[in-house]
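User: ATP-binding cassette domain-containing protein, Actinomadura litoris:
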Amino acid sequence: MSITADVTTGTAAARAERVTRVYGTGATGVTALDEVTIAMPRGRFTAVMGPSGSGKSTLMHCMAGLDRVDGGEVYIGDTALSPLGDRRLTALRRDRIGFVFQAFNLVPTLSALENITLPMDVAGRRPDAAWVDRIIDTVGLRRRLSHRPSELSGGQQQRVACARALASRPEIVFADEPTGNLDSRSSGEVLAFLRGSVREFGQTVVMVTHDPAAAGYADQVVFLSDGRIVDRMEAPTADRVLERMKGFDTAPERGPGENS
Ligand SMILES: Nc1ncnc2c1ncn2[C@@H]1O[C@H](COP(=O)(O)OP(=O)(O)OP(=O)(O)O)[C@@H](O)[C@H]1O
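Assistant: Predicted structure for ATP-binding cassette domain-containing protein:
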């Protein structure tokens, strides 16, 4: 039995309703998501955790409009994604969602500043200079703006990617293992920035992570197992998340009425 989390449509920046995603067909088909219902509350930092193969990346990709669902519906704000054609979906991702990936995904020939404003330049939108300035200061990149990615450390590159994600004031930022390639100090800087963007700017952030310490920066953690949401933790700490993760192989399934 899976549980649902926070389905309060009025306050959700994004939500999934009974979302199913199956890779392959027939006997070899894999149900990566099995009727997942979840809302990502506006202005909060949500971490998505679970064992390897539990469906974390699939959930993020479906909720961010990077992958199609086989059943159910995803909404960004009040916009349902499945009726959208490719062009409108691309425009929605560009205009309303910010992305941070494990591999930074910066353009090597552009400076840090050019990378930060690139999505808006591509969209033909004029960056809000005061806002971009504020982001640059918050992320601590003022003295690195003319550097190319190869001239920056991994942590600095990921902070450029975070600034890029926030520069267009997206409704929601999806971060997929944003600290997966970073040492603990750089991880701390990136996570503190994401945390601060929620606290100071009211940004909504959803982060997939394997790392209990990273999840400890979030307001809430949702736990996936076998393509279902099986638990949720408010005000997590790294220790509590670690304890919960240890229980995954042996934890009994929750029955009806046992939702957190
Ligand atoms: N493109 C694909 N084709 C076939 N199966 C896939 C595909 N993508 C994911 N899967 C399967 O779907 C399930 C969920 O995968 P997913 O990558 O979402 O899990 P995850 O929790 O993000 O895993 P990890 O922590 O290892 O990154 C797994 O069994 C995986 O093998």
